[in-house]
């Protein structure tokens, strides 16, 4: 082009991929869920593009993240079955492509399956996939955002590409204040998790532990049998109310989602 056209060419945009690991659309008020779990996401959506038919390529973190970071189907990547499987060298990742295009690149997560465990550290200048001292997975968004802003202050140049994969809502769901107790009282939470509601109360054998000890759990975790079928059959054998268990698990999940959403709002607000 002419010198005049080159002078007016817009600078490449900065790009952030922000993933709420385990964040199901069916439990987001953005998509019509009856609890107001995602008001900040709704505000962002009002000025953005929302996809109503977006589907994960797999039901667990490693293959689904690898898929959207390469644009390739799970099967094309070799079919992740073991914890040691990684993205093949022949499949460039989004981080590698942006790095090759002259971008500063960074990954911030506490989940190795969204990092080193899948080889998503390739082509990344600033990389974190483990928590530090005193950092817990249920508050990952707060700690990872601090790491991100520290990176931007140390290396303020543009353009940059950053991949967040926060684990606030990932199992085990551990709601934090002020959202803990929003939908589940302490006694029902203790019956589910086995954690006592107060330090002077003896711990109980929670529903979750009982299901996890039952025969068939390992097969269900490996995908060799239906996890929902395992829950249904085990709870029936134990004489535990299936509806109460599911309602409690969903409510604890909703409390963690209610925590993750304002954290997303914080980073969007500061970026603006």
SSE topology:
Layout: H1 3-8, E1 15-20, H2 39-45, H3 61-70, H4 94-100, E2 104-109, E3 126-128, H5 140-154, E4 160-166, H6 186-193, H7 207-213, H8 217-221, H9 227-238, H10 242-271
Parallel strand pairs: 1-4, 2-3, 2-4
Describe the structure.
Helix content is 39%, strand content 8%. It has ten helices and four strands, in the order H-E-H-H-H-E-E-H-E-H-H-H-H-H. It has helices at 3-8, 39-45, 61-70, 94-100, 140-154, 186-193, 207-213, 217-221, 227-238, 242-271; strands at 15-20, 104-109, 126-128, 160-166. The chain has a four-stranded parallel β-sheet with strand order 1-4-2-3, sandwiched between helices. Helix 2 (39-45) packs across helix 10. The longest helix is centred in the C-terminal third of the chain and has 30 residues, at 242-271.
Question: Outline of this structure?
Answer:
The chain contains ten helices and four strands. The protein has helices at residues 3-8, 39-45, 61-70, 94-100, 140-154, 186-193, 207-213, 217-221, 227-238, 242-271; strands at residues 15-20, 104-109, 126-128, 160-166.
| Radius of gyration from CA coordinates | 21 Å
Summed over residues and divided by their number, the pLDDT gives a mean of: 89
The gross shape turns out to be globular
Order of helices and strands: HEHHHEEHEHHHHH
Query: How helical, in percent, are the residues?
Result: 25-40%
Low-pLDDT residue spans: 1-8
Strand order of the largest sheet: 1-4-2-3
Taken as a percent bin, the fraction of beta residues is 5-15%
> What structural class is derived from the secondary structure elements?
alpha/beta
Largest sheet: 4 strands, parallel
User: What is the strand tally?
Assistant: 4
- The end-to-end distance, rounded to whole angstroms, is 32 Å
């Amino acid at each position: 082009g002419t010198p005049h056209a080159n002078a007016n060419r817009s600078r490449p945009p900065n790009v952030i991929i922000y993933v709420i690991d385990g964040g199901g659309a069916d439990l987001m008020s953005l998509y019509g869920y009856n609890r107001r779990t995602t008001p900040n996401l709704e505000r962002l959506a009002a000025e953005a593009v929302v996809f109503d038919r977006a589907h994960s390529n797999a039901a667990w973190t490693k293959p689904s993240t690898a898929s959207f970071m390469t644009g390739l189907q799970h099967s094309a990547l070799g079919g992740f079955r073991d914890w040691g499987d990684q993205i093949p060298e022949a499949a460039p990742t989004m981080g590698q492509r942006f790095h090759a295009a002259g971008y500063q690149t960074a990954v911030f997560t506490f989940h190795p399956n969204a990092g080193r465990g899948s080889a998503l550290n390739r082509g990344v200048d600033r990389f974190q996939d483990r928590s530090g001292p005193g950092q817990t997975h249920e508050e990952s968004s707060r700690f990872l955002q601090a790491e991100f802003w520290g990176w931007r202050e140390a290396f303020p140049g543009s353009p940059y590409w950053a991949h967040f994969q926060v684990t606030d809502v990932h199992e085990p769901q551990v709601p934090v204040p002020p959202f803990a107790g929003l939908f589940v009282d302490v006694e029902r939470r203790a019956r589910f998790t086995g954690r006592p509601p107060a330090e002077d109360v003896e711990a109980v054998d929670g529903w979750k532990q009982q299901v996890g000890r039952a025969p068939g759990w390992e097969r269900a975790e490996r995908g060799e049998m239906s996890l929902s079928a395992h829950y249904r059959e085990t709870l029936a054998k134990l004489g535990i109310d299936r509806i109460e268990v599911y309602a409690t698990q969903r409510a604890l999940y909703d409390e963690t989602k209610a925590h993750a959403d304002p954290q997303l709002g914080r980073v969007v607000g500061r970026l603006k």
